[in-house]
Amino acid sequence: MDILREATAWAKAELISTPFFVLFGVVFIAASIGLWQVGKTDLAKAYIIPTLAAGVLLTVIGLGLFFTNKSRISQFEKAYQQDSVAFVASELDRAEATLKEYKTVVFTAIPLIVVACALVLFFVNAPIWRASMITTIAMLTVILFIDGLAHARIDEYNKQLLQASQELKN
């Protein structure tokens, strides 16, 4: 197995995925600007700040992940050429830590936050609260969608790393 090729393929797949955070961020920002320009009701006006905040947050997340993964691609080859066993071990540690973070944050905390937001919607009728909770649910849904796909990719990458680790030991 060529783990360097697999690591590079994983990082390149992440480079394709992370711009979706930016795309959805831009959509949220555009919605905020649109509501600012044409929103007449209290609820429409209440959406301006929450959608802008969600849009900026998604854009920052996307750009941060994009540039982090872009720099990894060039580092992979250098690290692998210096010490392939250490490279696989460090990537394995990073992948396993990321999988644990996904389990804790993406697949536990985010659904709980969505439920909490839905409960607030059920009990509170103020426009700013409704707009904030609906925007939060929408943003977290985007994060769940994109990170669900990223989780599947890093889980597969982790399996490849485990196989490579076994091959290097033999």
Give the key terms.
single chain; 6 helices; mainly alpha
Order of helices and strands: HHHHHH
Q: Sum up the overall morphology in one term.
A: elongated
Tally of extended strands? 0
Q: Termini distance?
A: 13 Å
Give the mean pLDDT: 94
Radius of gyration: 20 Å
| Helical percentage | over 70%
Describe the model.
By secondary structure, the protein is an all-alpha fold. It has one domain (3-169). The chain has helices at 3-17, 19-38, 42-46, 48-82, 84-123, 127-169. The longest helix is centred in the C-terminal third of the chain and has 43 residues, at 127-169. The protein is elongated. The protein starts with a helix and ends with a helix. The mean pLDDT is 94.
What's a concise summary of this model?
The chain is 93% helix and 0% strand. It has 170 residues and is an all-alpha fold.
Topology record:
Blueprint: H1 3-17, H2 19-38, H3 42-46, H4 48-82, H5 84-123, H6 127-169
Helix pairs in contact: 1-4, 1-6, 2-4, 4-5, 4-6, 5-6
